[in-house]
Amino acid sequence: MAKIPKIQRAHVWEFTKDFLSINLGMAIYALGWAVFLLPYHITTGGMVGIFAIVYYITGFPISTAVLIANIFLLAISVKPLGWKFVVKSAYAVLALSTFLSLGQEMMTDETGKLIQIMGEGQDSMACVLGAILNGVGVGTVLLAGGSTGGWDIIASLVNKYRNISLGRVMLYLDLLVIASCLPIFHDWRMVVFGYVTLAIYTYVIDLLINSTRQDTQFIIFTHKYREISERIIHETSHSVTCLNGEGYYSHKDIKVLITIVHKREQINILRMIHEVDPVAFVSQSRVEGVYGNGFNVIRT
């Protein structure tokens, strides 16, 4: 009988942390919509943007529309995209629908009208704050290896069968949704605010994801490789790779050290090198997406 593999505590913690992050991200995303965008009649791209337009026209709850549409999309994507993608996406969609419903309920007054917490005429500020919260929310979900459903599912399906990048598919759909506000509402204001929201939202996502994945790689040419390597290993949590090199001009042997450290540690590494070998030749560069011991975990 085959042995059932033991569930490691680290895997349980990673799994728990991912789903807590998805909850937090969806709560922040829903907050941006319920508190800032919906009360000020602002929309943007994404499937929630479509249902925001439907809500402005009919009053049909966004949370219900999001849930129904994504159930259909998830059902048809199980086979081509796999269970892991579908399970995480389904959880994110359920969390988003729940938080949107709670958010709208809290922001609705006795007359059934959404409360404009910053007062009337503050559309520009609402646009900026809503977009920032949306970007932080979605970025948090993406960092946890999750998906917000909607466009993510459609883009993944298109990418599965056509040689079109996910980003391009999502951009085309977002631009189309925002542009549709003009023939429906005959309001240039909604179109302009929609594109501004999309730009800020996208920028915040990129900023959040890139800032958390930035590390620093050092390439060090030195004759005092042992001393430098020992200090890096003992004074940080990182290791060093040592390569044999030869100066082409001098034809002298030299050791080449390669190490990758967190961004906050780069000053300490430079000080170590200078203290041990002031004449060492050092190359420092930024790297993104470092996975392995001491860095990020590959999420599937």
Helix content: 55-70%
Beta-strand percentage? 5-15%
Major sheet: 4 strands, antiparallel
**What is the total number of structural domains?**
2
Distance between the termini: 28 Å
Task: Let me know the average pLDDT.
Answer: 84
List the total number of helices: 11
Work out the number of β strands: 4
What value does the Rg take, in angstroms?
25 Å
Taken in chain order, the helices and strands follow as HHHHHHHHHEHEEHE
What spatial order of strands do you see in the largest sheet?
2-3-1-4
Which runs of at least 5 residues are low in confidence (pLDDT < 50)?
Answer: 1-6
Describe the global form: elongated
What class do helices, strands and sheet pairing give? alpha+beta
Label this structure with key terms.
alpha+beta; Alpha-Beta Plaits; four-stranded antiparallel sheet; elongated; disordered N terminus
Polypeptide structure, described:
- By secondary structure, the protein is of the alpha+beta class.
- It folds into two domains: 201 residues, no CATH class; 75 residues, 2-Layer Sandwich (Alpha-Beta Plaits), CATH 3.30.70.
- The chain contains eleven helices and four strands; from the N terminus they run αααααααααβαββαβ.
- Strands 2-3-1-4 form a four-stranded antiparallel β-sheet.
- A hairpin with a 6-residue loop joins strand 2 and strand 3.
- Helix 6 packs across helix 7 and helix 10 runs antiparallel to helix 11.
- The relative contact order is 0.12.
- The N terminus is likely disordered.
